[in-house]
Design goal:
Helix content is about 40%, strand content about 15%. The chain is an alpha/beta fold and about 210 residues long. The longest helix has 20 residues.
């Protein structure tokens, strides 16, 4: 019998005018790699251009909220064309940025087609959506609970504060086997693919809701 669990039938959205960032932790690298690959696959399948997918890494999941926040706040548009550019290369514009600057929507289809507004594109044109990926595996101490709690709340805060969708790609699993299964490493479904689709759907709907 088919499972009731899951995101329902996949909606098709055109991601061809979106810019998406993936920020991932390095802890549990093998599982992370499979999840990032899944997210990239579904972004590309949804039409997101390869040059509009920016990937960055941080040591562990606990660093994700800060990295996502800085990524959204400080990365100049020029740097985003370098998919491997380090966060540290981003000019720190935070001190001079107003909230209005930070929440300026990414270029719309109209502006990309050369409307008069395109010449006024903001310096820090942000991302349509960002996917935060981490894998927390429960150990013997309370580390797991603290990191899971802090990271979840941090990611929610960033997306609401900045008005940019942050897709929750944080696996909180009880053992390595559960992580491998959810990353599709046993040949089953890779949750990273769902996250890529969620980023495209939210990126598109965000333009409509603006
Ligand atoms: C310290 C730690 C532990 C015990 N476990 C994980 C984990 O399973 N997954 C993960 O992404 N990160 C883990 N970390 C590292 C923390 O997230 C963080 O990088 C460090 O505490 C440094 O701030």
């Amino acid at each position: 019998m088919a499972s009731l669990k899951g995101p329902g039938e996949a909606q098709i959205h055109d991601g061809s005018n979106l810019r998406i960032a993936i920020v991932h932790a390095r802890w549990n690298t093998e599982i992370i790699s499979a999840l990032v690959a899944g997210a990239r696959r579904s972004l590309l399948a949804s039409g997101v251009k390869v040059e509009n997918i920016v990937v960055e890494d941080v040591p562990g999941s606990y660093e994700l909220p800060f990295a996502v926040q800085r990524f959204l706040m400080t990365l100049p548009i020029e740097s985003s064309s370098n998919p491997t550019g380090p966060i540290s290369a981003a000019t720190d514009l935070l001190s001079s940025a107003s909230l209005a600057d930070l929440t300026t929507p990414e270029p719309t289809a109209a502006s990309q087609q050369g409307s008069s507004k395109s010449s006024e594109a903001p310096l820090k044109a942000s991302f349509s959506a960002i996917i935060a990926i981490g894998v927390l595996i429960k150990g013997e101490t309370m580390h797991f609970e603290y990191i899971a709690d802090a990271t979840s709340h941090g990611l929610m805060k960033v997306q609401l504060d900045l008005g940019v969708p942050v897709v929750f790609g944080l696996l909180t699993v009880l053992n390595e086997e559960q992580g491998r299964a959810r990353a599709g490493m046993d040949g089953k479904h890779c949750h990273g693919e769902d996250w890529g689709r969620a980023a495209v759907e939210l990126g598109v709907k965000r333009q409509v809701w603006a």
